[in-house]
Amino acid sequence: MKPSLLILAAGMASRYGSMKQTEGFGPQGETIMDYSIYDAIRAGFGKVVFVIRKDFAEAFQGVFEKKLKGKIQTEYVYQSLDSLTGDFTLPQERQKPWGTAHAVLCAKDVIKEPFAVINADDFYGRDAFEKAYQFLTTDCQPEKHAIIGYDLSKTLSPNGTVSRGVCEVDAQNNLVSITERTNIYAEGDKIIYEDQSGKHEVPYHSSVSMNFWCFDDSVFYLTGKLFKQFLQQSGNELKSEFFIPIVADTFIKEELGVIEVIPTSADWFGVTYKEDAPGVQNRINELIASGQYPNALWD
Questions:
Q1: Which of 5, 147, 193, 217 is the most exposed place for a label (fewest CB within 10 A)?
Q2: How many CA atoms lie within 13 Å of 290's alpha carbon, on the beta-carbon side?
Q3: Which architecture, in CATH terms, is 4-289?
């Protein structure tokens, strides 16, 4: 059974200021997602599932259905504040859905096979998808998931600070923990993060999570159980979020299995800030010029 690719595309894009998921960066107006889907298809994935907001479903599907028809199976699921919340009473003031793990859970009825999870607005690179496909088709099982690990130094923005999940990895290359660091930036030949206690250095080549996960579909059961607990404990906090690392951390700490950290040689890039857009276009043009992608992806 071919693995599926789950793309998290329901984000509010608050820092970027527009619906960046469908903004064109390639020569023929290709989105960053187009390149991820193209890489997934040539790696061997059989289905792409988009998690989107229902209010832009028509426009979104209009962009992707024409170009993907006959190339890969597509499914669409919707993430909203009331998705899968059962009899929980929603806070009146809250508008934003519950985060990345909640988005994953929204796909539980359409994914019945091993799958990868990515963000819509991150460029992950061909090597990452090939590594993910290899894992999902040979090593993935209920007791073994994986995350694609990126070199921290390759994931910074020249236009502002970033937040990254810094991975602690054991001798067997399995994940021990992910620590979310905010306000990360380069300072000379060092990488710094700032918190309330001041400035701290992060090892230059730390392995970081860019939200590229590889899961057995059994993860939906654990995620559903934890989401219920999350709502009971934190659902009335207006800014609380149910993130994928919460699920991963529980999986590890309760000794349900291991999460392998798979290093990739790929360069990550993305559009955290609007000022990042020209740089993304330049990077894509360079990859096309070097022959890694065709000038028109879907011709």
A1: 217
A2: 7
A3: Alpha-Beta Complex (3.90)
Quickly list DSSP for 105-163.
HTTTTT--S-EEEEETTEE--HHHHHHHHHHHHHT-BTTEEEEEEEEGGGS-BTTB-EE
pLDDT at 53: 87
Q: How many Å apart are CA 134 and CA 79, to the nearest integer?
A: 29
Residue 6 contacts residue 107 (beta carbons within 8 Å): yes
Quote the tokens at residue 147: 């995350």
> For 173, what's the count of Cα atoms within 13 Å in the CB-facing half-sphere?
11
Structure tokens at 37: 């889907």
Domain boundaries, the chain: 4-289
**For the chain, what percent of residues have pLDDT higher than 90?**
65
pLDDT digits (tens, 9 = 90+) for 150-159: 999 989 888 8
For 49, the 3-state DSSP assignment is: strand
